[in-house]
Amino acid sequence: MGGCYPTMDLLRSEQMQLAQLIIPIESAHRTVSYLGDLGLFQFKDLNAEKSPFQRTYASQIKRCGEMARKLRFFKEQMVKAGFSPSTMYTNGNNINVDDLEVKLGELEAELLEMNANSEKLQRAYSELLEYKLVLQKAGEFFYSAQSNATAQQREYEAHHLGEGSIDSPLLMEQEMSTDPLKQVKLGSVSGLVPREKSMAFERILFRATRGNVFLKQSMVEDPVIDPVSGAKVEKNVFIVFYSGERAKNKILKICDAFGANRYPFTDDIGKQYQMITEVSGKLSELQTTIDVGLLHRDNLLQTISHQFECWNLLVKKEKSIYHTLDMLSIDVTKKCLVAEGWCPVFATNKIQDAMQQGTFDSNSQVGAIFQVLHTKESPPTYFRRNKFTSSFQEIVDAYGVAKYQEANPSVYTIVTFPFLFAVMFGDWGHGICLFLATLYFIFREKKLSSQKLGDIMEMTFGGRYVILMMSIFSIYTGLIYNEFFSVPFELFGPSAYECRDFSCRDASTSGLVKVRATYPFGVDPKWHGSRSELPFLNSLKMKMSILLGVSQMNLGIILSYFNAKFFGNGLNIWYQFVPQMIFLNSLFGYLSLLIIVKWCTGSKADLYHVMIYMFLSPTDDLGENQLFNGQQFLQVVLLLLALVAVPWMLFPKPFLLKKQHQERHRGQSYALLESTDDSFELESHHDSHGHEEFEFSEVFVHQLIHTIEFVLGAVSNTASYLRLWALSLAHSELSSVFYEKVLLLAWGYNNIIILIIGIIVFIFATVGVLLVMETLSAFLHALRLHWVEFQNKFYEGDGYQFCPFAFALLKQDEE
Question: What are the transmembrane regions (predicted)?
Fold first, then answer.
């Protein structure tokens, strides 16, 4: 049916076909790879009943998964080392998967060995560093204790030769008076304990040994690297003196429980200095070895980073190829793979060329076969789009993906969406701000597209062309409203009005006299600031909202006609499109006509009164509310047409559908009806004998719901368009408040500080409220008008996207 219509890439989706590919096994991998480069074939899973482990290429997918794991390991190591994968592609494309698998295995083994050696060396270095700290801190303690003991001994010998004193140390007195052979030998345990555990460590030691130990702790100023965990920890050096093996065993267990690292210590000062010197020498040697190892490791990671992106993409491609091959069924001869899937009709030659190239490059003796299958299955929806139309298509797809080849609302959304937004956001000053912000995103889109942006910035950047159109239309409507941050300008010539005398400055328009021709474009600047500004703009914007709403709803109904004509559905033309057009335009089309006539004639007729009494008493005389001759007769005719249109929509269609079903069942008609909107009614249920069941009650109720929805929706949808008036008024008044109550108020104080504060507050209020919140508010309202009021007149949106096997999508997912 669509052959006589001119092809439009965006109005109707591409013509699709179900194709079968028969590919020899030896050329299957290369052929699928070329189809992935082409990106125009959507494979169907012919092995859906099999689990992933039962499929033919499960082992190859496992291999690719293992290579992907190694690449993730390399990436983690590069991130730790501060490297980022290079975006420059090297000659990694020349490597095949088998060689890459071997190379990745070798690199992983080498890197793991380096990490293990580095870890061992780092642990040894940390242990030696802690040992050095123990030698230094404990040596200081022994040195100070020995100095104190020597001083006390000299004092004792000088003053108390031969007699004891109550002030003398008991141990010293006992040692002095006891036989040296009977003196108790004290043992010691030294090491480092985490500072946060030091108090608990001390208490447990005291309780476990009942106070029969002497503990000395010294704080280490800088955090040290723990040899076990590898983390930086604040620690204390401790030394514990004890007597007896039982006390030693308890101390060792407590040290292990608290994670205290123990190191040997001698009380010989000479040996202490010797050990410190040896440890310092080993530390410097270890540091040199560690530095050389890290340099070698960094060189290896840098080499990997140059080819990482290429390897990663190659592994992803291979994995996706084998996943696709698993969706193919094996021929009974086990020499061919059979694939089924969807592709656009225009891509037939390209797909055949790719298959021939795959056969030639793999030196296969048998060529691949491409054949079109005939099916009643609904094809996927595919629109060719660019970066400009893509964001508008996303707005439509968020509501629902278009049914195959139905009229696409995004063609009209490109204009109507930003225009309706601008009706609510009409200020050419704010429009210029949005325009400049969008130009920044557009001029830097190459750089920004490769960067990680936040969620909100990502959404804003993705819709940059939508915002560009919104800003351009906002400048246009702002010029019509004559508002620049709520300030009017005489851009297109002087005002048509002037004051009668000097006393009429604050008067209403009755104090103004028209002295020139009408202001050529937009609202006359003299209206702003006058007493009648609000009533005038209210009336203008309210009537304009109704006109725009009725126009867009009529466009939706007209598109339903083109849908019905395209699919050859005469029932929808005569029993849906015609009565809907009559009903909508008999009431609200007539209201639009009255608005235009009133504007043209300057009449003071009350349109509320006209519309209300058109229903309550259509035969009454209109009196002063009459706008043209024959208006009363026209109203009666339109009212009767509206009343006739309701049963016209409701009753004929279900009976005609039943009649068509009966004729098809008798074999008298072979009309293809599967493309109609009511296909579920005609192909609803099949019994065991294959006969179609036609539930007349379901069809009638479905039509009744549609009729009620349209009749009530005609009223509610028209009223819904009044949001254009409400938001436009709110935006204008908010802008006026910020200008008069912030900027002008600050200007009136003649104080530079107050003026600067006022300007800052005005800028923040304008950006935060008008350019961010109001933009979002107007965007959401325009979105609702398109989804609910416009698209529900013709758009089903129950299709599904065309998702081809394409390597380009792998790169997008990675980004």
Answer: 419-443, 464-481, 544-562, 574-597, 633-651, 752-773
Q: How far apart are the first and last CA of the chain?
A: 42
Q: 801 has which bridge partners? A: 381
Mean residue pLDDT across the chain: 86
- Average pLDDT over every residue of 72-86: 86
> Residue 613's domain spans which residues?
388-497+516-663+697-793
- Do the Cβ atoms of 705 and 694 come closer than 8 Å? no
* 134 in a structural domain: no
pLDDT at residue 585 above 90? yes
Phi, psi values for residue 329, rounded to 5°: -100, 150
Q: Are 676 and 572 in contact (CB under 8 A)?
A: yes
- Determine, yes or no, domain membership for 197: no
Which tops the pLDDT comparison, 140 or 670? Answer: 140
Tokens at residue 688, please? Answer: 């065991």
| Residues 6+ positions from 748 with CB-CB distance below 8 Å | none
Rounded to whole angstroms, the maximal C-alpha distance in the chain is 144
675/341: higher pLDDT: 341
Task: Kindly state whether residue 482 falls inside one of the protein's structural domains.
Answer: yes
The single residue listed with the structure tokens 């190239």 is: 357
Can you say whether the dihedral through the CA atoms of 234, 239, 245, 246 is positive or negative?
A: negative
pLDDT at 639 over 90: yes
Cα dist from 379 to 239, 341, 371, 390, 716, whole Å: 81, 10, 16, 21, 35
Residue 632 burial class via C-beta count within 10 angstroms: exposed 0-12, middle 13-18, buried 19 and up: middle
The band of 1, judged by pLDDT with boundaries at 50, 70 and 90, is very low
User: Over the range 355-370, which residues count as b (16 or more CB within 10 Å of their CB) and which as e?
Assistant: bbbbbeeeebeeebeb
Q: State the pLDDT confidence band at 671, using cuts at 50, 70 and 90.
A: very low
Is the model more confident about 91 or about 198?
198
* Residue 445 placed within a domain: yes
Tens of pLDDT, residue by residue over 487-539, are: 999 888 888 888 766 655 555 555 677 888 889 999 989 888 777 788 889 99
Which residue, among 397, 393, 375, 410, has the nearest Cα to 800 in the 3D structure? 397
Q: How many domains does the chain have?
A: 1
213: Cβ contacts below 8 Å, ≥ 6 apart: 205, 206, 240, 241, 242, 247, 251
Is 694 in a helix, a strand, or coil? coil
Closest to 786 measured CA to CA, from 324, 413, 368: 413
| Whole-structure pTM value | 0.79
Comparing CA positions, the residue from 630, 595, 625 lying closest to residue 613 is: 625
798 φψ region: left (φ > 0), alpha (ψ -120 to 50), beta (else): alpha
The pLDDT value given to residue 246: 87
Is 772 exposed, middle or buried, given 0-12, 13-18 or 19+ CB atoms closer than 10 A?
Answer: exposed
Residue 726's nearest CA partner among 546, 521, 488 is 546
CA distance 431 to 469: 10
Close Cβ partners of 244 (under 8 Å, ≥ 6 residues apart): none
The average pLDDT across 603-620 equals 89
**Which burial class, exposed, middle or buried, applies to 555 when counting CB atoms under 10 A from its CB (0-12, 13-18, 19+)?**
middle
